[in-house]
Amino acid sequence: MIKHQRSAPSACCALPVVPPLRLVVESSGRAPSTARAYARKVVENAVAGTDPDYVFTVALVVTELVTNAVRYGTEPGDSLLVVLDADDVRARVEVHDTVRRVPRLKPESGERARGRGLRIVDALATWGTGERPLGKYVWAEVRRR
Questions:
Q1: What does the domain layout of the chain look like in residue ranges?
Q2: Among candidates 42, 33, 104, which has minimal Cα distance to 73?
Q3: Class of residue 79 by CB neighbours under 10 A (exposed 0-12, middle 13-18, buried 19+)
Q4: What's the DSSP call for residue 12?
Q5: Are 85 and 57 in contact (CB under 8 A)?
Q6: pLDDT (tens place) for every residue of the chain, 145 residues total
Q7: CATH superfamily, with its number, for domain 24-107+132-143
Q8: What span, in angstroms and rounded, lies between the C-alpha atoms of 121 and 117?
Q9: Does the chain have fewer CB atoms within 10 Å around its N or its C terminus?
Q10: What is the C-alpha to C-alpha distance for residues 28 and 43, in angstroms, rounded to an integer?
């Protein structure tokens, strides 16, 4: 009788550990920081030789979109879906929520403490919106320089 022995995979053939491409997070005050950490890991793992400024920019865009979704796009008990795809050219993020109301840029104001998040996204990325059966998604693409 011949016994087959399984050998351990060599280091050259081991599969990389990559975070999931989708993150479902409860709509709460902790959602932006959770999504920010997720975005950093995805970009750092997906893009070889990423510079810290690029990682920071993607994380900031994700933070602003998730913050807006928590404040304006969800009801208590809802969850958000964050989808992030990054390669050597760009990072694309989508934040899905349950409210159909589309975000808009608010007029600039030095008096308001809120309402600047989408302006930040607009300055750093190309962005837009899309419909889904139960809500909408806001997408943004950050180009790597």
A1: 24-107+132-143
A2: 104
A3: middle
A4: G
A5: no
A6: 443 343 444 444 444 445 447 999 999 999 999 999 999 999 998 888 888 999 999 999 999 999 999 999 998 889 999 999 998 889 999 999 999 999 988 777 677 667 788 999 999 999 999 999 999 999 999 999 8
A7: Histidine kinase-like ATPase, C-terminal domain (3.30.565.10)
A8: 6
A9: N
A10: 24
Any alpha helices (H) in 1-145, and if so which ranges? 31-46, 52-72, 117-124
Q: What six digits make up the tokens of 40?
A: 């950093």
- Pick from 68, 50, 51: which is nearest to 106 by CA? 68
What pLDDT, on a 0 to 100 scale, did the predictor assign at position 94?
96
Q: What is the chain's length?
A: 145
Q: What is the CA radius of gyration of the chain?
A: 19
